[in-house]
């Protein structure tokens, strides 16, 4: 239930439950509980999915400290809006690696979309096309690289995990290139799978992925805990290192982005090895718990890169205000993971489109209310970080 604030007659309290901000308000003599559209979709997804799948999508590693922090660190950043700026038109459009998109909100690579909806990644790709944005297809997708490519005309990037079987990684890269994917996103934060305790308890399944038919088996069936963890630990190449970027460049002409950078030091190395961009990410807090909230390290990375390559961002984006904050701190665009999956689980292609449109609408409003008619008008001085707020109190 989402209601217009103009009808509020009283506001009772504002409290955080789980990762969600709830407001209890009185309207026309009755009490109502408001939630963001994201939480509405999360709730619908929870109702629609078996517990094992919902926990897989929603969960994080170990204590889920970073999972909460990814979201809550945004709440500690406030705005410095400017007034009396002509915002009768607000332009959200931007360019990523030369591709024009309608807003700086892209779809993050996430595994196993068919567990959320029978149409799987095809539904997600069609929603991306309808929103005129970029989808990053996961290496662990349930639809094939070819099926997704032929389903719509969205600009698509391909996310890569490097298996011990390098020939399999190389083959998938070639298939992505042949099928019109425009960039590779090399994910570097999974030498082993993080300890996801819900998946261990639920004995999370690992299904055969069609992309690998005839190449290798991705199906694991044992009774000892998360089959996904067993799969990743068996197949992923934990020896992958900076030197291997030369190998990757030798097998493709596509631009390469590195996803999973959290420090200025690693950002400098990424620039040195000649990649075309980086994604500041802690993998949605599913890998190393107590890694920092991604928004809290974005600026360090942006400073280290010194504008040499684009810096993208993901982790905890739930509102248009979050997108604005990430842009103000130097990101060129953001990627969203769970909101897209919850949209997909709740309402298929339509749900994904709604979630993206909601974020776009909220970003547009935030820009108007902050005095920013275009993305280039969003500057560092439009936000106040927690550190700045603390300094101002000294
Ligand atoms: C269910 C799920 C599956 C994911 N699968 C992948 C994947 O296959 N490859 C990858 O690079 N990242 C994967 N990620 C991480 C996302 O790309 C992204 O970094 C993260 O979801 C961003 O955080 P958010 O969910 O708060 O938006 C996955 C995340 C989730 C939640
Ligand atoms: C199968 C997993 C490795 C997919 C993934 O990246 C994730 O679940 O976070």
TrEMBL record:
Catalytic center residues: 283
Species in which this protein is naturally found: Quillaja saponaria (Soap bark tree)
Presence of the UniProt keyword Oxidoreductase in the record: yes
Cofactor requirement: FMN
Pfam families: FMN_dh
Binding annotation for FMN: 109-111, 138, 159, 187, 259, 281, 314-318, 337-338
Gene Ontology biological process terms from the UniProt entry: defense response to bacterium; hydrogen peroxide biosynthetic process
Name this protein carries in UniProt: (S)-2-hydroxy-acid oxidase
Organism lineage string: Eukaryota, Viridiplantae, Streptophyta, Embryophyta, Tracheophyta
Binding-site residues, glyoxylate: 161, 196, 283, 286
Keywords of this entry: Flavoprotein, FMN, Oxidoreductase, Peroxisome
Family: Belongs to the FMN-dependent alpha-hydroxy acid dehydrogenase family.
Gene Ontology MF terms: (S)-2-hydroxy-acid oxidase activity; FMN binding
GO cellular component, one term: peroxisome
């Amino acid at each position: 239930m989402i209601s217009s604030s103009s009808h509020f007659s009283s506001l009772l309290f504002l409290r955080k439950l789980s990762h969600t901000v709830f407001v209890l308000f009185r309207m026309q003599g009755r009490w109502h509980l408001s939630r963001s559209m994201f939480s509405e979709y999360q709730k619908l997804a929870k109702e629609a999915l078996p517990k094992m799948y919902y926990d897989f999508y929603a969960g994080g590693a170990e204590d889920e400290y970073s999972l909460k922090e990814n979201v809550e660190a945004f709440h500690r950043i406030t705005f410095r809006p400017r007034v009396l700026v002509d915002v009768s038109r607000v332009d959200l459009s931007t360019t990523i690696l030369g591709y024009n998109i309608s807003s700086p909100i892209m779809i993050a690579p996430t595994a196993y979309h068919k567990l959320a909806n029978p149409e799987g990644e095809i539904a997600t790709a069609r929603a991306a096309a309808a929103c005129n944005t970029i989808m990053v297809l996961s290496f662990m997708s349930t639809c094939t690289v070819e099926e997704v490519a032929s389903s719509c005309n969205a600009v698509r990037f391909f996310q890569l995990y490097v298996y011990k079987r390098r020939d399999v990684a190389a083959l998938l890269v070639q298939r992505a290139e042949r099928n019109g994917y425009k960039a590779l996103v090399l994910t570097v934060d999974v030498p082993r799978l993080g300890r996801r305790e819900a998946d261990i308890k639920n004995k999370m399944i690992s299904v055969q992925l069609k992309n690998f038919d005839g190449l290798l088996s991705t199906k694991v069936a044992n009774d000892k805990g998360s089959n996904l963890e067993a799969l990743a630990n068996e197949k992923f190449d934990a020896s992958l290192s900076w030197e291997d970027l030369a190998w990757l460049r030798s097998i493709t002409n596509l631009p390469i982005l590195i996803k999973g950078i959290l420090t200025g030091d690693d950002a400098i190395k990424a620039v040195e090895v000649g990649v075309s961009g980086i994604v500041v990410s802690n993998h949605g807090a599913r890998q190393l718990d107590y890694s920092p909230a991604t928004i809290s390290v974005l600026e360090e990375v942006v400073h280290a890169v010194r504008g040499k390559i684009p810096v993208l961002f993901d982790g905890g984006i739930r509102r248009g205000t979050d997108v604005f904050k990430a842009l103000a701190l130097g990101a060129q665009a953001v990627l969203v993971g769970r909101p897209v999956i919850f949209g997909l689980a709740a309402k298929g292609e339509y749900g994904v489109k709604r979630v993206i449109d909601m974020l776009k609408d909220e970003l547009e409003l935030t820009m108007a209310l902050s005095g920013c008619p275009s993305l280039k008008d969003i500057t560092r001085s439009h936000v106040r970080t927690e550190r700045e707020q603390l300094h101002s109190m000294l």
